[in-house]
């Protein structure tokens, strides 16, 4: 395998360093970073070889149980890259940054989001959980601050008082979510990534991300489910 044999250059190391410090990087930024790292290191740059460049890094990260993974933003369908620690598949990977009480609030927030119909949880519902925590009851003001930190650290996204999982969280915790929420977690029928905010076919139960729904049904006069061919009854986004 030529990729496995490829040497990790300073350009690869620089790219990895920036990706790790960002937590998550949008694909267009990753392409610019790829070019920048190659130019600084004076190595050959090909604009269509980002995936090969990342594969080389991943082959060297493999023994460390780490990987650069690609994921899709559920909001706009844009691709993002994040460095994932494969050795820690649970929420415990956040343990070094947060207290046990904060982690419990995060887990409960995750429950609300994943078990909801639309992939969102209201701040009211989350804050109502704050004084029911087993580890230590949290005042609402304190819980608000913690939620703010989860948003800043790109584990949650917030819009008009509604919270959902950030793209970074979905990329990093996909396996954890799929194995811990087997009855409700589903992959998008189009892009095959975990779908939190999705529309679901009323007949066969498949789910699709909203950007994937938009793309799939574009130009179709009568939207029909890609799996069972029944009429798609959800309002198109």
TrEMBL record:
What keywords tag this UniProt record?
Answer: Chromosome, DNA damage, DNA recombination, DNA repair, Metal-binding, Nucleus, Telomere, Transferase, Ubl conjugation pathway, Zinc, Zinc-finger
EC number, as in UniProt: 2.3.2.27
Q: Which domain of life is it from?
A: Eukaryota
Picking any one GO molecular function of the record gives: zinc ion binding
Q: Which InterPro entries match?
A: Nse1 (IPR011513), Nse1_RING_C4HC3-type (IPR014857), WH-like_DNA-bd_sf (IPR036388), Znf_RING (IPR001841), Znf_RING/FYVE/PHD (IPR013083)
Q: Give the primary localization class.
A: nucleus
Span of domain RING-type: 188-229
Catalytic EC class:
transferase
The reactions it catalyses are: S-ubiquitinyl-[E2 ubiquitin-conjugating enzyme]-L-cysteine + [acceptor protein]-L-lysine = [E2 ubiquitin-conjugating enzyme]-L-cysteine + N(6)-ubiquitinyl-[acceptor protein]-L-lysine
Q: Where in the cell is it found?
A: Chromosome, Telomere; Nucleus
Kindly list the biological process annotations in GO that this record carries: double-strand break repair via homologous recombination
Which GO CC terms are listed, alphabetically? chromosome, telomeric region; nucleus; Smc5-Smc6 complex
Family the UniProt entry places it in: Belongs to the NSE1 family.
Question: Function, please?
Answer: RING-type zinc finger-containing E3 ubiquitin ligase that assembles with melanoma antigen protein (MAGE) to catalyze the direct transfer of ubiquitin from E2 ubiquitin-conjugating enzyme to a specific substrate. Involved in maintenance of genome integrity, DNA damage response and DNA repair.
Q: How does it assemble?
A: Component of the Smc5-Smc6 complex.
Q: From the Swiss-Prot or TrEMBL record, give the protein name.
A: Non-structural maintenance of chromosomes element 1 homolog
Annotated source species: Malurus elegans
Q: What is the lineage of its organism?
A: Eukaryota, Metazoa, Chordata, Craniata, Vertebrata
């Amino acid at each position: 395998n030529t990729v496995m044999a490829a040497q990790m250059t300073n350009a690869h190391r620089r790219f990895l360093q920036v990706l790790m410090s960002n937590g998550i990087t949008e694909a267009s930024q990753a392409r610019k970073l790829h070019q920048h790292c190659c130019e600084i290191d004076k190595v050959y740059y090909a604009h269509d070889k980002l995936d090969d460049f990342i594969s080389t890094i991943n082959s060297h990260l493999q023994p460390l149980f780490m990987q650069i993974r690609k994921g899709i933003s559920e909001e706009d369908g844009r691709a993002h890259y994040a460095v994932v620690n494969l050795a820690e598949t649970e929420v415990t990977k956040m343990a070094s940054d947060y207290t046990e009480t904060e982690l419990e609030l995060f887990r409960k927030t995750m429950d609300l989001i994943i078990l909801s119909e639309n992939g969102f949880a209201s701040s009211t519902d989350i804050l109502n959980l704050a004084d029911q925590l087993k580890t230590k009851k949290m005042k609402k003001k304190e819980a608000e601050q913690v939620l703010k930190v989860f948003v800043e650290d790109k584990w949650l996204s917030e819009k008009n008082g509604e919270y959902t999982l950030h793209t970074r969280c979905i990329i990093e915790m996909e396996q954890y979510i799929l194995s811990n929420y087997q009855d409700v977690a589903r992959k998008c029928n189009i892009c095959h990534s975990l779908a939190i905010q999705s529309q679901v076919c009323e007949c066969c139960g498949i789910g699709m991300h909203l950007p994937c729904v938009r793309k799939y049904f574009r130009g179709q006069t009568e939207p029909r489910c890609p799996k069972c061919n029944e009429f798609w009854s959800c309002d198109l986004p």
